[in-house]
Known about the structure:
Oligo-1,6-glucosidase, domain 2, 3 domains, five-stranded antiparallel β-sheet, 16 helices, 22 strands
Amino acid sequence: xxxxxxxxxxxxxxxxxxxxxxxxxxxxxxxxxxxxxxxxxxxxxxxxxxxxxxxxxxxxxxxxxxxxxxxxxxxxxxxxxxxxxxxxxxxxxxxxxxxxxxxxxxxxxxxxxxxxxxxxxxxxxxxxxxxxxxxxxxxxxxxxxxxxxxxxxxxxxxxxxxxxxxxxxxxxxxxxxxxxxxxxxxxxxxxxxxxxxxxxxxxxxxxxxxxxxxxxxxxxxxxxxxxxxxxxxxxxxxxxxxxxxxxxxxxxxxxxxxxxxxxxxxxxxxxxxxxxxxxxxxxxxxxxxxxxxxxxxxxxxxxxxxxxxxxxxxxxxxxxxxxxxxxxxxxxxxxxxxxxxxxxxxxxxxxxxxxxxxxxxxxxxxxxxxxxxxxxxxxxxxxxxxxxxxxxxxxxxxxxxxxxxxxxxxxxxxxxxxxxxxxxxxxxxxxxxxxxxxxxxxxxxxxxxxxxxxxxxxxxxxxxxxxxxxxxxxxxxxxxxxxxxxxxxxxxxxxxxxxxxxxxxxxxxxxxxxxxxxxxxxxxxxxxxxxxxxxxxxxxxxxxxxxxxx
Length: 550
């Protein structure tokens, strides 16, 4: 039986994974072609970003047909073949469900525009002010107002994201039934898991203006969200004990996540939360340049680890995804200590309590691409905010500096399979430029190298399956106030695991508060680790130490 606590999920961004037909865009057959690579890595699930019919205004998160595969990615036969071939290798497929909103090209929205009252109630419409102002002052997460006016109707519709992504009205029982049918449709075709996009935004509260912020407090973790998720679960995936679900929780609270991902709450298997990835923001504003706050990072990671454990709730643990910059560029080192820092960052995540997620290319240490021109970017959020930054008076060079650090396109460049001109990704012209360092950083150079980042991730994944303390153990921070060391202990039925990470490029001395007598080193990112009462840690050095009681 699959146990998501002992499992590891690999995220595939299909558009950038592997192209088999030469159109410059990855496809479903490309994922099937690389299953042996993923099996060698050791992962249990593949989470696929959306490949449904879409205008691609937001790279597939603007869905125009939930039940149809966009021809640019392949066919239903390709998907079913992927599921079969993955199953042969002990790998399961997890699909991305975008249920907060649809594309305005979706049949439902088009019927609403045409005057069909039944489908108008599928979305959230409001009248604006007499002076032509929107219904309230909420801001879109992609910049600008969150309402779009439709002159023919004399009303505004809500879009928390791009104006072509209209928010669904979950208050309408018919909407909820339609979405349940979508879940059943893909379960019948071989899906074994779902990731639900920004699912804690589906229940809106009141629609008043927000004079203290951007409106998120009125629609985040809304009044009926737990009811809706419980209803969805019990009618669909909750009937299968082995089915795995994860909810992306935008600006959520830990208290709500106790319920979203509680062992007995009947909602979801686990949650993504992002507080630890806002430590290089100013408040909730990411379009700034500030050093990351290490003390805050540790405090958030540790508090979520202990809090979720105390309430028998489960986390997805991760650094990277399609919306985040590359972690080795963000918290590690792109230069001399590229490999040790990438391995250390992997160790931090994979030994935590929670199900680890690996984003494509993370296992080989892919970096941000370092784009220098707006025409290199494809992400609507990044392009919008570049113009917003310029309108605020920021110099062009400074705006580019911010995009190079925070843009979602940092993680969306093609997977670097080899060192050839197009990185082994395509025979055509890539939809977005390939990172120039692919000649050095690529899968072909690492899969058979026992000292590679890939090999380190293999070992981390194998350790979770071998040692129950990693999957099931409790969590205890060690020396939480230390300014350079991130360390913690896990314990389970006589097993002890101590995980020690120097988070910086400077050597560090550290006296472990745990007596390390009898511990052995399961894994390190240096060839000759030493254990003693006082540890002399090299730049980005990482140690996984283990002891089992006699």
